[in-house]
Amino acid sequence: YIFNVSSIKDITESKYPAHKVRSILLSCQYGLSAKASEEPIGIPMLRMNNIINSEISYEELKYIKLTEKQKESVLLQKGDLLFNRTNSKELVGKTAVFDRAEDYTFASYLIRLKVNPEKVNVYFINYLFNSPIGRIQIDMISRQVLGQANVNAQELQDFIFPIPDIATQEQIVADISTIKAEAKNLKELAEQHRKEAIKEFEKAVIG
Fold it and tell me: Can you give the pTM of this predicted structure?
């Protein structure tokens, strides 16, 4: 606890001004609590298992039928940030940016954050939530109930992040994107080498 409090103090003393998340938001909304189905009829619903490594996985989807009036308020828009408010201690607080033009909605265990694009780059905020700066604050406030940790909408809006100017944010996002692309290429190359090694081994043993 002392370590965490000290770390929060370091955030407020960073070279960039520190702001509460609520100061950069346009809106904050819980997802749908209605039951979804595996049958692909209706609108695909993103759930907490669809957030992986700060990105959205569009696999293992469930679907829900929505009225036109419901669609007005619960359809995701490109650039929405999804925050996983309930999960294990290690996974609560995961975030990812919705980046598709098609119709999707989101489940109740997720919170949709709409950030002010004049103040922040949404991908920069996504990386902050998933960084040690965000994890420390999540660990400080998350509550454990029946094996699940929880963070509510009011609490996450009180998170404090150092926010540089937009140009600096965009440069940081570009640098991280480059690193992630390089890491993905290395992973694919390693998998290719692994498969080739197995083939060579089988060839040597079996002939």
Answer: 0.84
